[in-house]
C-alpha cells in the first residue's frame, strides 16, 4: 500500500483522530498511578506504573516487552524495555528513551484539582506526568499504529526499541549502570529522547543538544575551633575569607571562567547556529520575568540564549561559614563551605573539568587552611550536528505533523540521562518533544496541550519511515 506524502499525512491524521478517545482514556488510566520515585511510600506505584506500561506496549503490538530491575540487588525503580523488529533485515535500529516516574504532587501544593485524577479543560489535560513524561512517552504507541496503518506494513520500517526508566525524577541513580549492563540489547543506530519540548505553541522546534554537569562541594578548615577576632584576627587565616576569595576569583571581568583549561576542546557555535538561535522569537523581558530577575549578566560576546544553551558556565550554588544568627559575633570561624556547579558543552569532559578545578582550588588555598573537595555524579553534554541525517529525519517528521511549517532548532540548558545513552551506545541522540513552557513541569497544575500531544503522535508516525531512509 503506497501513498504520496500528502495522502500519507492525511491517512496518519485520520487514524489518530479516530483513535483519539481511546488513546486519551488509556493515558488517563496511566496518569492515575502516582509513580513518584522520590518518595519511598510510592515504590509500589512506580512498579505498578511499569507493569501498566508493559501491558499496554504488548497490546500495541510489541512482541518483546520486559520489566527490568535497574538494581538487581534492590533499591532501584523498574524500567520497561520493548522491542519491535522490522520485517526488513537490513533496517536500522532506533531506541526511544523516556521515563514513567513523576515528581511529587499534592492538592495543597496549589493544584486546582487532584494531581492524580486527570481532568480535561479547555482542550488541555491536567495531571502530574501529563507532559513530563507519560504523555510524551505514550504518544509513540499511537504514532506507531498510525505508521502501520498509513504504510500497510505489519511491522515498523525500522527496528524500534524503547527504554522507559522509573527514576529520572529522582536522579537516574542506576540508569547508566543499567545501560552499560544491557548495552547489547539497547544497541541502536540512533536514540530518540521524548522528554523535552518546543519553543512555544506556535513555534515548532527540535532540540539538538543538552549541556552536561559537574558539581562539587569545597570544605575549608582553619582553627580547630571558632576563635576571638580581636585576639587573633589579622594573624591567622580565615576559612570564610578564603571561600569568598575562591568564589570571587571564579570569573574574570568578562564573566569567563578562570579555571585554566576549562574551555579546552569545546565545540564553538557556528555562524549558522547563531543565526538560527537569533531567529527565535525571544523576548528577554518576559524571560527575565520568568526568572524573577531584573537584568542579564554573562559571558561577553554571547546572547542570552547562547549563554544558557551553548556556553559552559560556573555558578556558586551556596557559600557559608561562621556565625549566621541575629546580631554580631566577632569570631574567626573554624570552617567554611562552598558549593559550585559547572554546566558543560560539547567537547568538554567532566573528568578533565574535575581535575582542572581541583588543581585551581589547590593553588588558591593558603598555608594554614586545609581543604577537601567532593564531586558528585557528573553528566556528559550531548550535541547532534545540524546536518546529521537522523536530525534531518526528525525535522522532516515534525514538519509533516505541523503542516509543512518551518522547524527551528533549540538546545536545553539543563542536563539529563540522554548523554549516558550517547556515551555508552555511541549513537547520536535526537530529541522529539511537543511540550511547551506553559505546561508547568514539576509545578502545580501540570498539563499538556491535547492538540500538540496528537501532533507528537503524528510526528512519531512519520518518523520511522524518515529514519529508515536516512539511516538505511
How does this structure look, described?
This protein has 472 residues and is α+β, with helices and mostly antiparallel strands. 36% of the residues lie in helices and 20% in strands. A hairpin with a 2-residue loop joins β4 and β5 (124-126). α1 packs across α15. The model has no long low-confidence stretch (mean pLDDT 96).
- Sheet bearing the most strands, described? 6 strands, mixed
What is the helix content? Answer: 25-40%
Q: What is the count of DSSP helices, taking H or I runs of 4+ residues?
A: 15
Q: Please, what is the average pLDDT?
A: 96
The class by helix and strand makeup works out as alpha+beta
Low-confidence stretches: none
What's the Cα radius of gyration? Answer: 25 Å
The share of residues in extended strands comes to 15-25%
Please report the distance between the alpha carbons of the first and last residues.
20 Å
